Amino acid sequence: MEEQEKIVKSEEEWRDLLTPEQYWIVRQKGTERPFTGALLHQHATGTYLCVACGEQLFSSAHKYDSGSGWPSFWQPIGEANVEYHQDVSLMMRRVEITCHRCGAHLGHVFEDGPAPTGLRYCVNSASLQFDPGE
Question: Global pTM?
Fold first, then answer.
């Protein structure tokens, strides 16, 4: 897959593009309350895209019910589609995941997921849009 050009916008442009909740989560690194996200119980076949730029991030084939209260995946569509950052906020050490293309905050990745990766990509519903495809 060919790498797409990075998207850079002003905060005002992001505010105009996103809902207040989406802006708070993807631009200000917020977190939706557990068990409240619109995509938590989405079980249809399709692709989860970045709400800010449309980058393909996760496949429904890699989604599972982690019981955490957020949509969870055991791997992204491609390693190049997400970036990893050390997050030491809230007196914890975690690994934040962001969209490679636009820098949108997606959530965090943890090492308590299922085989084959053992990873749990814990993602805010508000940072994603679901594309059922054809």
Answer: 0.92
